[in-house]
Amino acid sequence: MVKEAKTDWQNPQEILLHVSDLKNGTYFLHVFKGKDVIKKQIIISH
Q1: Full-model pTM
Q2: What is the per-residue burial (b if ≥16 Cβ within 10 Å, else e) of 15-45?
Q3: Which portions of the chain are predicted below pLDDT 70?
């Protein structure tokens, strides 16, 4: 599954990602910043 989010130009260090439509589980988050990629594992539990 691919979700896309954009940062707020007022606060580029913060990303708001809506996850209400995702099932509970473990997901891998890839954040692209220029040529860099930050990879994080996240757990969704509603």
Answers
A1: 0.68
A2: eeeeeeeeeeeeeeeeeeeeeeeeeeeeeee
A3: 6, 8-9, 11-12
